[in-house]
Amino acid sequence: MPRESIAGFLDDFIRHGRQIAYVQRRGYRTERWSYHDVALCALRTASELEARNISKGDRILLWAPNSAEWIAAFFACALTGAIAVPMDDSAAPVFAQRVCTQVNARLAFCSREHSGHLSSIPAIILEDLRTQIARHSATAFPASANFSPSDPLEIIFTSGTTADPKGVVLTHANVLANLAPIEAEMQKYLKYERWVHPVRFLNLLPLSHVFGQFLGIFLPPLLAATVVFQEALGPSEVVATIRRERVSVLVAVPRMLQSLKEKILRDAEESGNSARFRAALDSAAQIHFLQRWWIFRRIHRQFGWKFWAMISGGAALDHETEEFWGRLGYAVIQGYGLTETTSLISLNHPFHLGKGSIGKVLPGREVKLADDGEILVRGGGVASGYWTNSGLSNEVAGTEVADKDGWYRTGDMGALDQAGNLYFKGRKKEVLVTPAGMNIYPEDLEAALRDQPEVRDCVIIARDIAGNAEPCAVLLLRDSKTDPEPILRRANATLAEYQRMRTWFVWPEADFPRTPTQKPKTSIIREAALAQLEARSGPSAANVSSAASPLAELITRVSGRNISALSPQANLEDDLQLSSLERVELMSALEDRYQLDLSETAFSSARTVADLQQVLTRNAGERLTYHYPRWALHWPATWLGFLAHYALMRPAILLLGWPRIEGRENLRGLTEPLLIVCNHLDDVDPGFVLTALPPRYRHRLAVATGGETLQSYRTPPAGTPLLKRLYLQFKWTLAATLLNLFPLPRAAGFQKSFAYAGECIDQGYSVLVFPEGQHTKDGHLLPFRAGVGLLANQLNVPVLPMRIDGLFEVKQSGRKFAAPWKIHVRIGKPIRFEPGSDPQTIAQQLQQQVAALGQGE
User: Fold this and answer.
1) What's this model's pTM, rounded to 2 decimal places?
2) What is the CATH number of domain 542-619?
3) Any idea what DSSP says for residue 340?
4) What residues have CB less than 8 Å from 44, skipping those under 6 apart?
5) Structure confidence at residue 538 (pLDDT)
6) CB of 216 closer than 8 Å to CB of 66
7) What is the largest CA-CA distance in the chain?
8) Domain range 439-534, CATH class
9) What's the rounded Cα separation, in Å, for the pair 797 and 90?
């Protein structure tokens, strides 16, 4: 029976039961939601909406990163007939407020980060959704019977910062019309899917975009597939996730595919195999894809053997990148569509790819080319209208969704071949689509510039980047001697990050060339400005100094803007105009190029080129590849650790100094994993902590220790004699197996250790850390490092303070053994911290708690 509303997908969710639907990172933890979990949360959230008197037609804002809670809230809107209003997580708060006003939103589902910007309407924080709806019954929500496929499902705003944002109204029927042909085609291949079940998608597209919804919400249930969400966009992190989660398909914007390509090329260059790799790449064009898998098996091993395809959407993918991945043996699937067409117009078949094309037109819609080559489309996927201040309309700002015959003019130029493949040839209408798939409307940027008193007029033109665009400001200044950089900086401050102008050009004449109606002749302006910009060595003269550098080369590669040299004073954001994604890519590129583990904290605080150079200098020569013994968390290492504790460690600790243990009653009834913090007196501290803990925690404990020392055991320095090398490696193996030690570096690389701590917590292990970072020299507590506060914040588990007393005095006296009960181990009460608490404040509070445990002496 065909579905009549999107809410019908919940039947599939319930049918798939305990199969994993979504995997997401929350802090340093990994959460796994089953299909049943999502359906249950959606039903309870719908009951919460009903309790708040939210009814059919009411508008609800969704403003948060991708998450299972986001999807549950979306389905809850569909169940109640409320209209979802998805907002991009990176949207400027002022834009979100304008959207709220225009749609008269009754409620917002938002992240904790955004909740402070929505004081005008009630908000439910998505991170706390399950807690807030727990009071509602788990029985099925009684959906109303008066729903129709033509009812609005959501309003997606594609405009930037204009006073009247442009919202496209999509109905249930619009989405279902685009899903039906894909579902029918997928049915043919379900009999093969069981051999690779479950198919796992790593979806890096935002759910606030329709294409992201298709690959994150609507298509996966048809396969009982798993969707992995991730906020970290660094190429190294993406590759690590694909391998760790055994991802089958990556869903991303073209920029991500280009970044991954650049990483592979950098790796080949750094290993000295660049020439051989490129030769193999050239020869791969004429051979079978199975041979490509064998030739490039090292790369396939790096990504994991289950990974086989990439789906690119949101913007045009350049032919060079598509060809690159194809030659490596991966399928690259492109789709084409717009928000007004409910995303999909055409889609490449994963097993019958039309190289260079954006796929064949989906059944149920018609496509034709206008006389000038513009792509026109009509069918069930074309949106019902735009949302204006007065409600639903077929036209907004002079733009119709469809003409009287039902044809929607896409504003894109295309071509069709005899096989029915559609080809993208460029853009006709004045909208810029960035490589990250974000729409930029020139009028928004021009409005921000015209607000600056020094600007008499301006035009925004597009600079081509691999088939997509970057905005460039052409300025007509009141005084030609005015420095444009402060003007751009102030204008950019009012825009969302993806809208910011990174290049500019001052028009040298007294006025723009104009039409008889006094409109600037944009084609002439564009041609003249681009010609001058091509002659420049960078986005502005202020960015250029006398000598080129490897750092300039990397920034050029990452940003796509020609920067031959850098001034040490050049600001990364204001002068070089690096976006947050480009900064992430630059950090990954620097780590690959210089073989460093850069401190994320230091890197994120770098503001200028000189700051970056200092970060690189501080880390020069410090490259250590830390190893995290995940095998120690599983059998048989766990059994060996269990036997060693009772046969060796516990007797040794009791012999060393039978400790008096106090406060064990504070753990009564507690079973969830803990973050344990303790003062640090000696290398034997973990033994005393293990002895003091109840068996349920003693047998599942991971211990963080000095990363540099531990790694020197596993990988001794070059020149170490063979016997000593074997002895050190044996010590590392014993430490990892019997004590479950893992490295915690004091500076760079600690984020990976924190992530490993999250993995331990996910598997039911508690984690012991010594926040002082080193042994005390005088018996007094050293200041706790702020890192423990960050760890407590991101693990979201109770923190257990502990304290060892008496051991320092034994150590100072030079004795090997202590009298019974001379050494005290005190266990405090577990503490929970509110999410988002200040890490430094948490560290101070924990230090006070540990200090207070020693005041009873």
Assistant:
1) 0.79
2) 1.10.1200.10
3) G
4) 133, 134, 136, 137, 138
5) 43
6) yes
7) 100
8) alpha beta
9) 28
Confidence at residue 129, expressed as pLDDT on a 0 to 100 scale = 94
Q: What gap in Å lies between CA 830 and CA 244, rounded to an integer?
A: 32
d(CA 530, CA 1): 56
Amino acid letter for position 785: R
Write the Ramachandran bin of 27: left for phi over 0, alpha for psi from -120 to 50, otherwise beta: left
Task: Locate the domains of the chain by residue range.
Answer: 439-534, 542-619, 630-853
Rounded to 5 degrees, what are φ and ψ at 693? -75, 150
Superfamily of domain 630-853: Glycerol-3-phosphate (1)-acyltransferase (3.40.1130.10)
Tokens encoding 452 = 């600056």
Geometric angle at alpha carbon 579, from 267 and 500, rounded to 5°: 145
| Predicted pLDDT of residue 843 | 92
Rounded mean pLDDT of the chain? 83
Ordered alpha helix ranges (H), 417-563: 442-450, 484-493, 522-535, 550-559
Contact assessment for residue 594 and residue 681, using Cβ atoms and an 8 Å cutoff = no
Domains 439-534 and 630-853 fall in the same CATH topology: no
Provide the pLDDT for residue 562: 57
| Angle at alpha carbon of residue 307, lines to 302 and 309, rounded to 5° | 125
Is residue 516 over pLDDT 70?
A: no
User: CA-to-CA distance for 851 and 716, rounded, in angstroms?
Assistant: 37
What is the arithmetic mean of pLDDT over 517-521?
66
pLDDT tier at 712 (50, 70, 90 boundaries)?
confident
Identify each DSSP E strand in 773-839 by its residue range.
Answer: 799-805, 824-827
Cα–Cα distance, 115 to 344 (Å, whole number): 32
726 backbone dihedrals φ, ψ, rounded to 5°: -65, -40
- Give the percent of the chain with pLDDT over 90: 34
- The rounded distance, in Å, linking the Cα atoms of 748 and 116 is 33
Q: In what order do the strands lie in the sheet with 455-465?
A: 455-465, 468-477, 503-506
Residue pLDDT, tens place only, 284-340: 888 877 788 888 999 999 999 999 999 988 777 777 888 899 899 998 888 888 888
Check pLDDT > 60 for residue 610.
yes
* Per-residue pLDDT at 494: 84
